[in-house]
Amino acid sequence: MQVDDGWSASGLPADFVDAVPNTSVIPILPDVRRAPAAPKTIVTAEEARKILSRNDSPDIPFDVAVNPYRGCEHGCVYCYARPTHSYLGYSPGLDFETRLVAKANAVEALRAEISRPGYKPSPINIGSATDAYQPIERDWRLTRGMLELMLETRHPVTIVTKNALVARDLDLLAALAEHKLVVVYMSITTLDADMARTLEPRAAAPWRRLEAVRNLTAAGVPVGVLVAPVIPFINDDAMEHILQESKAAGAHYASYTVIRLPWEVKTLFEDWLNAHFPDRAQRVLHRIEDLRNGRRNDPNFGSRMRGTGIWADLLRQRFAVATRKLGLNRHRLALDCDRFQPPASAGGSAALFPPAAAGAPVSPSPAGAKASSGVPFPSALPVAGAYGRGARQLRAMVAGQLSLFD
After folding, report:
1. Are 147 and 107 spatial neighbours (Cβ–Cβ below 8 Å)?
2. Residues near 151 by Cβ (< 8 Å), separated by ≥ 6?
3. Which of 189, 399, 231 is closest to 301 using CA atoms?
4. Architecture of domain 42-326
5. Please, how many CA atoms are within 13 Å of residue 28, restricted to the half-sphere of its CB?
6. Among 350, 296, 340, which residue's Cα sits nearest to residue 148?
7. Range 91-116 average pLDDT
8. Per-residue confidence at 298, pLDDT binned at 50, 70, 90?
9. Mean per-residue pLDDT for 156-183?
10. Measured in whole angstroms, how far is the alpha carbon of residue 347 from the centre of its chain?
11. Residue 109: which residues within 8 A CB-CB, separation 6 or more?
């Protein structure tokens, strides 16, 4: 299934036109004044020794997660995962968006971990730190490979994304949904195309995300929406509109978080504010401080996701009123952990679909097909990971993920 992200090759909406004098033809032209050439993305393959990460954070509704990629091509300026790139020797700025790492053996590593004796299944979240459906997933297909494994083993899974590419895997998601094994959360920060292009330049356009919600819901896949993050004086006024349009598209669940500025993200966000919204930059920062007990960031459990004080209370009230009126969050989906079947050994996985589908064309991987992901192991040495204190800090940073619920 071919999925467009909603933007033209120039980075502008597909219906953007630039008038040409003295001609009856109005071609679609890239506006180089607003859409400079995007930096080249470099992807390095890595063999992961371990793929599952665990956390015991009280404000995160899952305790097991998997991230097939390091770094994220979406380029969201507010991304809390940016500091994790520092532990790889890369910058949390442009490197985080353009120097990516793909865990080429993600499917095999996941199979090995859930095959261990005594393994007890609980919903695995895919995309908790970096988006598992970022643009490079079109070729690497690691997320699809993991979903195939989840279906094979009847393992419950949750997905968080802001890319319409998730609809490519509608066949797997619908099959998982039949057994109450999946829920997809679409992150929608704004419905304003200009704002989205500035805030999260290479994520799917807002209308494409809503279309994905509609397609997933029509196929019977449970869908929720995350208004995340809420940024004062930038997108906070859009909360009710996002919830309304998401409900109209078929979403059943909703949540939100307030912007967090850990470590280097603080400086990056401040620079972005001064560049794009100099007229309100100080107002935004002061309001964030109001939400964070006078600080730009609050790492404390219980308050880091939604803030404290009168402005945080106002956001809670607005969200509660809107979800009640729209009928969101009327019930919580309980994924089924009792259907789990230990996986077959690597290379001996059971068929997921009828034999007729076995000959269906498969999109080529960057260097040829292999296993579920379609990605071979690299011949070059993998990127070195973080060890010792750095590894502990990295795990702690990654554990500070989006809160899907209260």
Report:
1. no
2. 172, 175, 176, 181, 352
3. 399
4. Alpha-Beta Horseshoe (3.80)
5. 10
6. 350
7. 95
8. confident
9. 97
10. 29
11. 48, 49, 50, 51, 103
